[in-house]
Amino acid sequence: MVLLLYTVQAQAQQLWSSQKAAVSFFSSTVMEDIEAKSASGSSVLDGQTGTIVFKVANTSFQFKKKLMQEHFNENYMESEKYPYTTFKGKLKDLPDLSKNGTYLLAFEGNLNLHGVTKVYQGNVNLVVANGVLSAKSTFKIRIADHEIKIPTLVFKNIAEYVEVRIVAQYLPKSSI
Amino acid sequence: MHFLKYHLLLLFMLFNSAISFGQQDLEKELVMPANKHEKVMATFKSTKLINGHTNETIYKHELDFKVDHRFGDIAGSNGGIRKFFGLDNSTDVRIGFEYGVTDRLSIGLARAKGANSVQQLYEGSLKFRLLEQTIDDHIPVAVTLFGSNTIAGVEASKDLTSATAYRGFTDRMNYVAQVIFARKINSNLSVTLSPGYVHRNFTAFRDQNDLFTLGAGARAKISKRMAVVVDYYLPFRNSDDQAYLEQLNGFKFYNPLGVGLEMETGGHVFHLNFTNATAIEEMQYLPETTTSWLKGQYRWGFSISRRFSFDRAKK
Hints:
The structure holds 2 protein chains of 2 kinds.
Chain A: H1 2-12, E1 15-28, E2 33-46, E3 51-57, E4 62-63, H2 66-76, E5 84-91, E6 101-113, E7 116-129, E8 132-142, E9 161-172
Antiparallel strand pairs in A: 1-2, 1-9, 2-3, 2-4, 3-5, 5-6, 6-7, 7-8, 8-9
Chain B: H1 2-18, H2 23-28, E1 62-73, E2 90-100, E3 105-112, E4 121-131, E5 142-152, E6 173-186, E7 189-200, E8 210-223, E9 226-236, H3 239-249, E10 257-265, E11 268-275, H4 282-288, E12 299-309
Antiparallel strand pairs in B: 1-2, 1-12, 2-3, 3-4, 4-5, 5-6, 6-7, 7-8, 8-9, 9-10, 10-11, 11-12
């Protein structure tokens, strides 16, 4: 009976939640490679509709060079004005999340970064294993699209496109 | 009993699944990590405003190379077109290095010409962030401690009343200690208040060996990369000694006031400023500024600072 209850609950589970998701980005030029990492991404996924929200605090990104981190927050992201970067979108053709498997899903949605919202599309690698979802995604952001201005003096040090990598683990959100 | 529970649960599940989560509702379900007293960054862009220090130190494994320059009087009897508004003269030049031992502790080494008779200055300094302001105002004010020892290399004078009539090596030493309180009021305005103490092991006859001082400074952004900076220092002199020195030398003491423009371009910070102080070292401009804004005895000054990082990024 208890087992049955559990399976019923697992099947009906709608919301999946991820905390401490890893978000990192890379900018690579001839002059300099820049990398920053955050382990403070948060996300919620609706297991039935595929609707997904992902949010990360800009000040949570850690750089090797602290002065760079200061410039990132002060000059480029303006973290005081725009503290979060948020993605709201949808995972298409979401499979039955109660069954184990590996899937490649397409996503589409709006990314709000530096106060500018742009539509993004890409792929998510999703692994379902015993009630845990592991999601991985890589996509590129064009800095200029989000009205982030790079001064001419450091123009050669910062890439036009920045590669973003996300690794997140989702657990059923206990809604009872 | 079990049966009833099962049914209730199933009913609840059905009800639950009937609700479709919109993106707005979904965002409410987000659990964001709690911000544990996140520190305020970049209260100032440089370790110094014009004459005085800010609360900023150098990050770990970073080196700050800084060149300061003060020209001659722009106006007044020593300035004007004949001296090309002070550009013909240089009252003081300082070349300094500061290195971040940790994110909170910096060590500094500098060489300055020295503006008055006490010249050929070597400065060693320590700067430590005691407290850092937090965004949630758990700590509302940053507190940084600054201490320096400046050694004068100038040849000892034979005039026993002069400021350089050194009898031994320790006579050449000068100490400065300051407690720098700073607050970033908003992203455009930061202020400092810094009480301090200057001790000179040897001074001119009847000049004070010990002096309490109070400084105040501010930085106001006018654009994303440009700011107006200002600082002012108040030395608390003994009025008897002050009157004696002023009468003997035919000058007056003034409080150093600096006003400038700060320009920041990733990695470099430039200052273009005006100040009545001729010297750059604390132990000199605090007790020995005898030039006045109102007499045209203010000067162009600039500082260039460049940061180098020694943390090699792993590939």
